[in-house]
Amino acid sequence: MQELSIRGWVWLTATAADIRRKLRGDERGLTTTEWALLVAGVAALAIVVVSVVRNLTSETANKISTDVNVKTNRKNFLQGN
After folding, report:
1. pTM to 2 decimal places
2. What are phi and psi of 42, to 5 degrees?
3. Is 67 helix (H, G, I), strand (E, B) or coil?
4. Which residues of 41-69 are buried (b: 16+ CB within 10 A; e: fewer)?
């Protein structure tokens, strides 16, 4: 019985080694993976840029005064008082 287990183990490890050897040389799909990673990186960079620009513009927009003084005296306004 133990001899059968050893044969099975040898066969299993040899098969696994053969599969690993075949897969190491297989480069199919490599270009697709590279493009997917590149697109994901560009998308992440775009998200970061949009969020930074949005935060900066909202901070600037919050600093703009919206108070309008409708009771401005035209004469004093033109004189700079």
Report:
1. 0.44
2. -65, -40
3. coil
4. eeeeeeeeeeeeeeeeeeeeeeeeeeeee
Residue count of the chain, please give it. 81
Distance of alpha carbon 23 from alpha carbon 55, whole angstroms = 47
Reported as a single tens digit per residue, the pLDDT across 62-75 is 777 776 666 666 66
Phi-psi region of 44 (alpha: psi -120 to 50; beta: other; left: phi over 0): alpha
Is residue 13 classed as helix, strand or coil in its secondary structure? helix
Give, in order, the Cα–Cα distances in Å from 66 to each of 44, 60, 71: 35, 13, 15
pLDDT 10s digits, 14-60: 888 888 888 777 667 668 788 889 999 999 999 999 998 888 888 77
